[in-house]
Amino acid sequence: MAKIKSLAVFCASSKPSNSIYCEAASALGKRLAEEHITLVYGGGARGLMAEAAEACFNAGGRVIGVLPQVFNKPEVRLKEIQSELHVVQTMHERKEKMYSLSDAFAVLPGGIGTLEEFFEIFTWKQIGFHRKNIALFNINGFYTPLVSFLEKIVADGLMDRMVLDSLIIAETVDDLIERLGREETVLPDKIWDSRN
After folding, report:
1. For residue range 3-48, what is the model confidence (pLDDT) as tens digits?
2. CA–CA distance, 75 with 77 (Å, rounded to integer)
3. For residue 34, which of 61, 3, 5 has the smallest C-alpha distance?
4. 20 to 30 A from 158, CA-CA: which of 35, 55, 98, 164?
5. pLDDT(80) > 70
6. SS3 107
7. Nearest to 103 by CA among 142, 67, 64, 138
8. Cβ contacts of residue 138 below 8 Å, gap of 6+?
């Protein structure tokens, strides 16, 4: 049983061409319901967002949507399957709200919006803003090229190995849930050289 009580999921609001991503998002949503872990997501009615949220809700789970005002439209939100819906003013407020509601983060396949959410929450961890676990759900090897790029950043001396090692790379729902529930990785405080 995972120690976490809530999980923020960052993922695509578009429908992928490969159905394996939808199947994995649905499996994660269902598993969260079974584990009594609240799903926190971006509030959208399309793509992997909807797959995860609907599966969680339909399995009896608790779902919290966080939607920017610009997307607060009937055709965008999935209000009928949300236990709670928070409407915020900006995209940045959305991330802050999702952060405050969540014990950990899972990043499913997605586009530039998903990557932006991942990199901001990962940056927050690197600088010591939080110690919550972050996982890339590497469905069908989707994030393998990104992990290789992050390895190059470490190899070139632009990021500490400890930072990259704090990131969970999970291939299955079981692995994702089990590892997110482990002790949170503590990174050393970021110390800036005042001469730079």
Report:
1. 899 999 999 988 888 999 999 999 999 999 999 999 999 888 788 9
2. 6
3. 61
4. 98
5. no
6. strand
7. 64
8. 144, 147, 169, 170, 171
C-alpha 50/C-alpha 13 separation (Å) is: 8
How many degrees, rounded to 5, is the angle at CA 19 between CA 141 and CA 174?
55
Residue type, 116: E
DSSP labels, 46-94: SHHHHHHHHHHHHTT--EEEEEEGGG-STTTB-GGG-SEEEEESSHHHH
Phi, psi angle pair for 148, to nearest 5°: -60, -40
Q: Are 76 and 67 in contact (CB under 8 A)?
A: yes
At residue 166, the 3 state secondary structure works out as coil
Return the H-helix or E-strand segment holding 194. Answer: none
Quote the CA–CA distance of 141 and 77 in Å, as a whole number: 29
